[in-house]
Fold this protein.
Amino acid sequence: MAKKPELLPKQTSFDVGSLLDSVLDKEDHVDDILDDVMNNDLAGLDGEDSNEEQEKPGKRKSEDLIDNMMGQIELQVPGKKPDNQALNLKSDTERIDDLLDIGDDGDIDMSVEQSANDPAGPGPDEKGNMEEKGQEKDERPKQKEKTVADTKEAQNIIDEAVIKLLHPDLFNQDKIARREWLRRNEEKLRTWPVNPIDEKIINVADCMSTIDRLPMVDAGVLNRFDVPSAVKEYKLKRIDLQEIPDIPKKYFEQTNTKEEDSKSGRSGSIVEFVIGDSEEGSGLGAIGGLSGKFDALTALGNQDKSEKPISCSGCGVRLKFKKKTREKDCFMAYKCDKTNKHYIFHDYLCVKLRIMKEAIRQYVFKMEVPSNASMDKDTLEGALIGIDVDDGGLKRSNRAKPQNFTTPRRGDFNYVEELDNKEIEEVEEESKERKTKRQLSTKRSTASTIHREEKKEVTTENIRFESFRRYRSHVTMIMERLETEPYEERFGKLPKVVLYCDLNEFGVALWEFVSESLKSKFRLSLWRVLEFLALEMGVSKVLDLFNAHTYLMAKHTLEEFDKVVKAAIEGSRYPIASSLRMAAFMNYRAKFDLSNEEDFIEIGKNYEEIAKKLLKEIESDHLFAMLVLIPTDIDGLSVMELALYYELINFLEEPRIVRVANAMWSGGMDFLRPEVSFQEAQLDITAFYTKLWNQSGNFYFSPVGKFATSSTLYILYLVLFSYVTWTLTYDYTFDFLLPEIVLWISSAGYVANKIVEFVDEPTKYFTSLSNYWDVLIAIDWLILAYFRFINSPHVIYNSNGQLDEIQTRNTTTTEAYMFFWSLQCVLLWSRVVIFLRISHGTGPLILMVINMLSDISNFGLIAVLFLIGVTFGAYYIIGTDLSNVQNVRLGTLSSVCLYIFQTILGQQDWEKINSQKNDSGQYLFNPTRSNLVLTLMFFFSVFGAILLINLLIAMMANTFDSFKEKSNTELNKQRIQTTFELDQAKANAPPPLNVFSVVFFLYWTAFELIAWVLTFGHRQFNEEFVSPLNKELWQYNKSDQVTFIKGKEKIKGAVVTRKTCYERIKNKKALNSVPILPNAVKINVGADTSEQWDCIVNAKGVTYHVLDSEIVKVSKLAYKRRTARIPSLQIENKYCRFCRFNLTNDRLHIDYYLQLFEEQSIHIDPVDIQYMRDLLSTTDRFGVPSTKLCEMCPNCFRPFKIENGEPDIIRRNRYIFEIVSYLAFKVVVWPTLLIVLFIPANIALLSDFIVGRFVAEETEESKKQKSAMYKTEDSDEYRNKVREASKEEDDITEIVKKIDGHVERLELTLLKESKVDEVVPEKPEKPEKPTKDKTDKPAVVTRQDEFDIRVDKMRSEMNRRFEEIADILGIAVQRKSQPEPTVATTVNSKSERVFATKSAFGA
């Protein structure tokens, strides 16, 4: 920057020429002055906020400089008077522009001097030039207004400009001055029109700086917040922290131990302190000095405990004054001179929060209290919500404190430094997370690392201030929404500081404040604030706040709470998922809040209906399926996963969701292809057998194939187990037969498979009920293996030296082995119900039994309590006196307990508790004690056998009835859940086939290691050569051998380069629009130079550019070249978890997927297209990157999750294990299924053939009859009669509806609890036998009785009219000897309608 110019010398007479000459002598004088005013003050702030700047009596040097210059110039201008008041109304830029007339380009306009010297003014040519210049200035915005500020480059310019305008030196000026300042100081904005600068920059900066212009006042101002004098009187002023008496003095001490030690010549080591200096008394030799130090430490600790806790006046969280963090602290102190109160804040964010709370307080008072209401001071204080924090109160949650994102904490308006520091911190945290989460090998090749870094640089958009961009975009969208009538009507009256605040910083804190305020009193205005916050904040954050403030869901606030929840759904990016999550939250609250259980359940159903209505807006089945499978921002779960996880069965009843599940069940990886139509029903046995025979690979990897494979293998395993059980093999059996050996190997695979599943996903393992079964089975197998292979059985031999099996079976170890083996029999056979849950016949029964287990558990708890009590009572009476009595044995507690349990079941033996005598005739158990036990057993048998058992039966019957109504819904939910789980599951071989898969996998790994050694790390097995999937002509990869046609010649070569799938889809449209001639493709030279190509093939040294349509054969090689010479099964390739397509550097964008529908001539609603684009977009219209939750596979078009920055895909080692699992399936399961299904499938095929060939064969007569059936009526007269009959039916329907409406209104009017004032005497009735209770008093008739009387009269009158009409119609029908069919039909339908209406009304 150039040296500051000196002040202009005072002149006694005004001479414009000399004045301008003095200014223009040095070229940079005016620019330097402006730079000092704007740039120097922006960069040289001293850390104080705008409130402090307005309170300081002094000004900056630049302000004094410009004021002195203005004063000297204005005193010398003819006709100008030194009106200080008028000067203060204009900004500095305006004062310079008025006096020096600085133009848009920064040059001084000389027209001032010309007008002074030439009174005639400018000539006509000059006027014309000026007019043309003005026209160009007016027309320029119209040409560039639509595009100049909408580019990505313009967003960074807007960010920097808005940041600069947020300084108080600029936002206190008017719009014109700020616009001209921007054009002078920002070169890129000089060519911008006026409207984009005002709308995108200046207006946004005005809204963002609204809170900085508001003063902060004390609560004592009460309702006089609109009175300027009261605001000035109670205004808070910035003071120094040392003026607060409550802050500990040690916080301000300036001590430096190292400097003091260096000055005193001490090194500060522990040895010197312990040895000390005896002369100074600082070592252990000076006991008094040491004790003095301990006394000082003790006193310091007591002082800390006695210090009064200080809370922040903005958020209420305790302030911590630590000397070691003093440099980082941004504490700010204020004081009100009127009330002499002190206010301390964490930083400028808390200051802003205090201003927002004051604005909400004013807003609530204006909305709740009439403007003309007169109240005393106490009433006013009760009407105003409290914002002051009590230091002696409870500790506030950290949620009440704002989170820093954009606001400078020190209040110095230095957004650039604050955002840069914030960005550095985020980058450091992200790098730490990446180091901990990513376990990358340090031996990776340099090429792959460079490629990954280049890819990251390409995909990452350069946004300098991302957090500020989010805040600015939020403010811009709020401004746009407030221009619409619905939004302005809902939230237009809210405080501007709340509307335009950064909700990432203040959203949670404001929610905490409003929620706490609602505790004291119900205020509708506060609910409107919550509704706005829920609309603009994320659903996940709102849910957390709902859980923290459950008192908002009281009975009298449910209506307002429902509005807040719907606002959160409305503002969500994924409204369908948000509706389901809110429905699940309501169902969860219904379990704990029993008083509002029905209301919560009803509200939850309403949210499910909202989700179903939103889904119905999507017309295309393919987009519908993709929408329910896309991961959302709610815990990364898709719509389908949310509905299944929270068991929202009402939502799963949607027929289109059932269609998606059916398509996923049978189609597997192909159901999202545009050419595939969704089927209604599931696979029949014929289609199942055909798919198994022709497409064994697709069958194995599909959900139906996984289910068939696992169920078949389990049945084979169960048969083998049953056979070994039938052979009576025990732990002492010495010979291991082949079936037992195979069983133990299979069981080892079973246990290993369950361990691997648990280690792979420990959090999700126990979400499935079948896994509990599997854990018990695995534990039982481990125990049995211990007894069979490790423990030594106790073997007993007879006198002949042979094994005595009878006595050996009675040993303890063998008995234990028998127990666990029998338990395994029950577990393994009962596990079959898992496969029967999706059956239409057995599925509902199994689900009923599972639900009845809760009834049994509740009944068991009550029964056990009484059982224990009666057991101890009976045992206390009996004692041990009957322990030696034959056939009784009731001397122990266990025997008494068993007898009581038999009593519950009604199987007790009453003779056991009769009186007993010994051999000498004395009573062991006398009659009195026997009667006591009999009495106890009598009452308990009545209670247990009659009451408890029947109670259990009634509970189970009630559960059966309630579940029977929704059995189909539960079955539907179970089928969808099974389909979805199998679709997400890996295609590993289920036990016991996994044992063979492990053997094959080890074999593969060993040979790949040998190939690596022999080829010096250059070659490896090609897993795609063995894979049964992705064998289509266009599913080729690099180094594959392809055969293609060029002209009339077949050529074979290796693929050198291939375009990604989305690039090939992108080029298809251009290829279809421009036809390719055969002569243009035929190339006989050394290289092919076609512009349109999908892959480059090298055939015998010649390079060809080949299209997918030209390829006729694809061959996969058994070996392929490694990308890295280090042997690894994981880092080579990445595969889609659904279709196992190679996803290495290949993804699909939603636009290219939608283009496929256009190629298939499938119409899709443009609204749905735009919605899917917005949903999967990675940036918004402001260029702000959104969280990337999923990517799309270019082969199956399925979206897959991105968790922690890593895609949810399958690595090469996992894919290899799936391939070897398929090979094991091909050897064991595939032939078994073909043999088992051969007869029923062929019978079904034969029946279909017979029906289609013979039964359904159409003759000529049947064809004519069929064509006649499809023929329409030609007679217009007949059509008119039918239309009239339809109109009459509609008229009758409308009449019935009107009658129903009148009756409902009568009910609402007459049915009230109050009685009629007048007394109506009773009607005379038929003589009856006199009764004693009959009185002569007149009956008091209620309004309900009067209503019944009137309704009876109306009913009898209408019945009479209906009978007359029916008689007339009957006579009319009989008189017509030959009635026309249509007329008779019409008359009959009318008469039937009349009688139906009469009977319905009577009912």
